[in-house]
Design a protein that fits this description.
Number of strands: 19
Structural class: mainly beta
């Protein structure tokens, strides 16, 4: 069986792939907790490694497009995260990255000014008409719970982006195999968009490695009458997409992990067909056939926490 491991991929139902969650769109009065950002690389991450420093964006959305004050609280998994990033652990590049989130960025620290607890791009001084404050500026964070509060003497514009970044240090790994991992409880908060418009707000939090369906395509290469040059999956009515990520312990039995990352039609299940480009010789010069079916199976679209095994073979 000829296989080349290159880049892993996730398959989106109806060819709609997962979108970035750093930029948000306003949808009523709400808080949205986005995907963690690695401080060193500046990239979103879904697998966390002990010792990693991450920023978690929290966006306050409102139909009024302005805010005079807000407070947001969220609960986090203390087995994975430690709240705050120590000043003493910052590299020069990481320190520069923190301040790149906005000119005169307002940092919330612990009482001893040893840890950066949150970054508020909205919390900047603008002459003497605008002030910003944070409850974490003088208080120690509560174990398992983080709070950020901000206010202004005049209404500030709510941009299409986060108003707060909570800072964490990762103390235990979260791997790509841990599907739909709930790192945070939904955020709770209060926001005031205009005079006498105080509202209680329920928030939402992204799951790490979020997906609607997940499965392993299992293949016993000894049972195949041909060589596989390329493997594909066809999800519902979408086009076939090549799958390249695999694992094997004996170079005989192979498992190809696939995640379905979107479900635009809110379907309960979808049919998946496995296809292969085959040949009768290893080099792929003889007896070639394109997209030969290796079987179909149904995948439930819910919120899986592990990959379901699906075995396919020559038809």
């Amino acid at each position: 069986m000829k296989l080349n491991k290159i880049i892993g991929m996730a398959v989106g139902l109806a060819m709609i792939l997962s979108a970035s969650t750093v930029v948000f769109a306003a949808d009523g009065d709400n808080f949205v907790v986005g995907t963690p950002i690695d401080l060193e690389s500046g990239e979103e991450v879904t697998n966390l490694t002990a010792g990693q420093k991450i920023l978690v964006p929290v966006d306050y959305t409102t139909d009024t497009s302005t805010v005079t004050d807000f407070a947001v609280r969220m609960d986090y998994d203390t087995s994975v995260l430690d709240f705050g990033i120590a000043y003493s652990d910052l590299t020069p590049g990481e320190e520069s990255a923190i301040f790149s989130y906005g000119l005169d960025t307002y940092l919330q620290t612990d009482a001893n000014y040893e840890y950066i607890c949150a970054i508020d791009p909205i919390g900047t001084w603008r002459g003497n008409r605008f002030t910003a404050t944070g409850t974490l500026g003088t208080n120690e964070p509560t174990e398992g719970q983080v709070v950020s509060a901000w206010y202004s003497a005049v209404a500030a514009s709510v941009d299409n982006g986060p108003e707060t970044y909570f800072c964490f240090t990762v103390i235990d790994d979260v791997t790509l195999d841990q599907l739909n991992f709930e790192l945070f409880e939904p955020a709770l908060g209060r926001g005031e968009s205009s005079v006498n418009s105080d509202v209680e707000i329920d928030g939402t939090a992204d799951k790490l490695n979020a997906c609607f369906g997940a499965f392993n395509i299992n293949i016993d290469s000894n049972a195949l009458p041909y060589w596989i040059q390329a493997l594909y999956v066809k999800v519902g009515d979408s086009d076939a997409v090549q799958v390249t990520e695999y694992s094997t312990t004996d170079n005989v039995n192979y498992a190809f992990p696939v995640r379905i990352t979107s479900n635009s039609g809110n379907a309960d299940a979808v049919t998946v067909e496995v296809l292969a480009d085959t040949s009768t010789d290893e080099a792929g010069n003889e007896g070639t056939q394109s997209k030969v079916s290796m079987g179909t199976f149904e995948v439930q679209l819910n919120s899986p926490t592990s990959y379901a095994d699906q075995t396919v073979s020559a038809q």
